[in-house]
Amino acid sequence: MKSRILAGLCLAVALASPAFAQPGTLAAARDLYASARYDEALAVLNGMPSNGGAVDRRAIEQYRSLCLLALGRGSEAESAIAAVVTVDPLFVPGESDTSPRVRAAFSDVRKRLLPEIARARYAGAKATFDRKEHAAAEREFRDLLLLLDDPQMGGRLSDLRMIAAGFLELSAAAAAPPPAPKKEEPAPLPVAPAPAVQSAARIWSGEDPGVTQPVPIRQDMPKVQASIKTQTRDRGLLEILIDEQGRVIGITVRKSMHPLYDAQLMAAARDWRYRPATVGGAPVKFRKLIEIVMDRR
User: Fold this and answer.
1) Are residues 166 and 35 in the same domain?
2) Which of 116, 162, 224, 286 has the highest count of CB atoms within 10 angstroms of its CB?
3) In the prediction, which pLDDT does 155 show?
């Protein structure tokens, strides 16, 4: 009888006891940190594998930096923060879960490391673009622009931002899927011809008979910056699509001169205006190739 009562009491105590985090886990380290047992929390964090995902590694290094700061080991804490920023440079600790001291330390490290990380990410995105993996390059250049626009960049690397924006546009254009083939419609009943409507439905070029080519109204070419003149090719090729109102609605660099100048050229082309191409007197869309020749004077 006594043994049954004792077993019941033990079970009741076990059920009423608070649940503890499993030893050796991030939750256990967090509990130890909350209990101001910083050395023990640090020992748990140091024993955890570092081959997890970016979020896991960021959380480990974040709590490692908190413990090191609490223990007065500032230089080691800075290294832990640098590891967080390297894994996720856009991460900023929130006010609700970190102290002003920790946020200030993160801010200092980010200001120092972000330019170096941005340059490395540009090199990686450019390598992806050169391998013609355009969809992946588009994602990498978009992430790079988010990083370059971070407030703690303070406007640094503005030239790199312009180049990255140009490569993003080139990547997006190259990654765009080809237009779906038009479904063949059944032959219509004989009706009066409508050449103007048929002309407007297609895109014409200079090789098509019967088309009057567009006439430039405004087609200003940007100047090549002195800093890149020696690195810029003498000739380039730009393809633009002009609509029935004479506006430029599509731009593609067919032969690059320099990534920075390509971006400037594409930005300028958006403002170009033309007297539209015509077929039988009706305005039509027109695909125009423009050879760009650099003026080295």
Assistant:
1) yes
2) 286
3) 84
